[in-house]
Every structure is written in structure tokens, then in C-alpha cells.
Amino acid sequence: MLRILSLLLISSSVFPQFDLGGAKTYEGSHKHSAYFEMPFRTHDIALGGTYRHSLNSDNFIGAFVSFYARPYGKAILLKSGPNFYFQLKEYRYVTAVGLDKKIWINNHYDVFFGGGVGLALVDYRGTGTGVYRGHKIVKKEGLTPLAQAGVSYKFNRWILIRIGGQYMDMKTTKSFRTYAVAGGQF
Questions:
Q1: How far apart, in whole angstroms, are the C-alpha atoms of residue 1 and residue 144?
Q2: I want to staple 96 with a disulfide (CB 3.0 to 4.6 A). Which of 66, 108, 175, 176 is the partner?
């Protein structure tokens, strides 16, 4: 994957001269973006979507709202006593809001970074009351910071891809994940 990313960045000189004024005009007239997202790491994946609205087209700053969900039950261990654990299927959901900024490299590439806050929710199937076999199950939920950065490639006026890294405290798994996106601006 590093080879492909390097090739894309090196081949950027093939494209015409960057037009910053045109990028600002485009960002100003196409303020909305929608993305299908897939943050992932080894043995863990989430699927979701993001809506982004451009707040300042001169500085390429936008606000976003995201939703992520793990599409399967991940087996995790939950502590229920000093030496007592349960293995349960965890379904994790995150809703997040924040700000991001794009820095255009040329007419097709930009570097982006953003941050915000999310609310991590969990569902342990079969434990709707919070009690499992007589033991109280403590749900690891709450607010989580969100940070992401990476590179975008815009194929045309409507379609783009993004790849980068994302930090989000998922409470029961490691927090750093690779971030892949397909979407568009309209």
C-alpha cells in the first residue's frame, strides 16, 4: 500500500499547475460532502458514514458528523470480579462531531486533519438488563476523543478517496486504526 501511495504522490507532477482560486471557488460552491468510511485494524473493523459541511471555503475548514458501527459481534472479556471474567459478544457504536481542515497539494490531492469528540455506546447481546448469570455487567461507554489525518485523492468533481490514520478510544480494543474512505463532494 505504501508503494501505491508513493506512486500517487510522485505522479502528481503529471497534473496541471494547481489553481488555488479554482479550489476555493469549488469548495465554496460545493459545500457538502458525504463519505462511506471503514476504520480498521487487525481483527477489528467498523463501517460508517460522515457528512461534512464546508464552513470556510477560503481556508478549507469544515464541520463533520460521523457514525460508526462494528457490523459483527466481537468476542471480548469483561471483568466481573477480582478474578472472574465473562466472554461476551460486543457490538460497538460511535457517533462523533468535529472540525477538519484540508491543505491542497495540487488539483487532485489534499492532506487533511481533523479532530472532535464522540460518544461510544455498546451492546452486549443477551445482557439487556445489565446482569448476566447473576453478575452485574459494567458497560464501557462514554465520551471519546477523535483525531484523524491522511491524504485524499479527488478523481473528478464528485468522487474522492481518503486514506490515513484515526485515533478513537473504543474502550475495549486498541485506539489507533487505519482509515479508508470513498465519497464525494456536492
A1: 29
A2: 66
Q: Which residues of 10-29 are buried (b: 16+ CB within 10 A; e: fewer)?
A: eeeeeeeeeeeeebbebbee
How many angstroms separate the CA atoms of 91 and 147, rounded?
22
The alpha carbon dihedral of 60, 62, 67, 70 has a sign of positive
Segment holding 42, helix H or strand E: none
- Can you tell me which residue has the cell 499547475? 17
DSSP 125: T
What is the C-alpha separation between 99 and 78, in angstroms, rounded?
34
Per-residue model confidence as pLDDT tens for the chain (186 residues): 666 656 555 555 554 556 777 777 777 788 999 999 999 998 899 999 999 999 998 889 999 999 999 999 988 887 777 888 888 888 999 999 999 999 988 888 999 999 999 999 988 876 666 777 777 777 888 999 999 999 999 998 789 999 999 999 887 788 899 989 999 988
User: Is the whole-model pTM more than 0.90?
Assistant: no
CA atoms within 13 Å, Cβ hemisphere of 91:
10
Instruction: List, as own/partner pairs, every contact residues 40-43 make where C-beta atoms lie below 8 angstroms and the sequence separation is at least 24, other chains included.
Output: 40/177, 40/178, 40/180, 41/173, 41/174, 41/176, 41/177, 41/178, 43/74
Give the span between the Cα atoms of 89 and 101, in whole angstroms: 37
